[in-house]
Amino acid sequence: MNKIGITLWRSLFETDNGTDRDLTWEQLGKFLSEPIDFIGEKETGGWSAASFVLNRRGLDHVATANALVLDFDGTAIRDVLTALFGGAAYYVHASKRNSKDSPRYRAVLKLSRSVNAADYYRVWRAYTKPFANRVDQACKDPSRFWYRPCRTVETLWEFWGEQGEPLDVDQ
Fold first, then answer.
1. Are 64 and 52 in contact (CB under 8 A)?
2. What's the whole-model pTM score?
3. Rounded Cα distance, 109 and 84, in Å
């Protein structure tokens, strides 16, 4: 998959009028590596790792899911995540509440091809099964709004990744 389709949203509460962006894997890494200032839940923009019919966010409007996104809130440190994703193409960035005492990360893994919503759930479950106790089970919706990488003055900002192999969605 040469381009990864994402959709940008002005806020968590905006479910219409998303903006499609087709990015290379490297461009997605740049997007994820440059945090913005968090200005509030209603004001801070976000993104979805999916393309939507009529640019309307919602599970029933997912046209394609284009990357696997995982949420880790206080359940894994950097070294553990790096070991979990060994060999895969991935990026990890800190969430706005990340701190030394409470590590919080978002991981984005490259897929071998785009998938529909049903296949996204299948891939999500199969990939996360070995570490299901670490990944946030509530965050597996392919239409999910993710805040843009952002930070507050308290955030311990971190970003890293590997240019490994995409996850084979056909296995």
1. no
2. 0.95
3. 12
